[in-house]
Specification:
single chain; alpha+beta; 5-stranded antiparallel beta sheet
Length: 157
């Protein structure tokens, strides 16, 4: 009987020492990336992740930079930030300092926000928004020689 009790205590200690958040949610989180139009290239922290829609498994340990781009459209860059997960409170109560340390090292004590990233890509150059009739004009520092000039803006006096 004492042997079984000791085995139970050892097993419980190992579970608690492993870190509550590490066990419950792991050190990576799935983040969905979408765009309108679909098929845009997704690059996260400089690494390609395919085209939208895509689900990326990202480390919880740090924030991430998401770049979404498509030929003919202005690129979009978004930040996914980390914050402390609610699982940390349970770990403090049940896991103590060892559990908190394990979760901190693995990154499991964090959650990534937002969990879904979406970008409405805007066409490069001049375009009219059909919803409100607003004219959008893109200004570039180095125009392409193959572009056709369709007008000139001047200061109103």
């Amino acid at each position: 009987m004492a042997k079984k009790l000791m085995q139970g205590v050892v097993a419980l200690t190992l579970v608690v020492a492993a870190g509550c958040a590490t066990i419950i949610q792991g050190s990576r989180q799935q983040v969905g990336v979408n765009s309108v139009p679909t098929g845009a290239a997704v690059v996260i922290d400089g690494a390609p992740f395919g085209g939208t829609p895509v689900v990326a498994r990202l480390e919880r340990k740090r924030s991430h930079i998401v770049s979404i781009s498509m030929d003919g459209y202005q690129p979009v860059q978004l930040t996914i930030t980390r914050s402390v997960s609610g699982w940390l409170a349970g770990n403090i109560v049940f896991g103590g300092l060892i559990g908190v340390a394990v979760d901190a090292i693995s990154g499991a004590m964090y959650k990534l926000n937002p969990e879904q990233v979406a970008a409405n890509l805007v066409k490069q150059g001049a375009s009219v928004d059909p919803k409100n009739g607003v004219l959008y004009v893109a200004v570039v520092l180095r125009p392409d020689a193959s572009w056709e000039r369709i007008g000139t803006l001047s200061r109103a006096e």
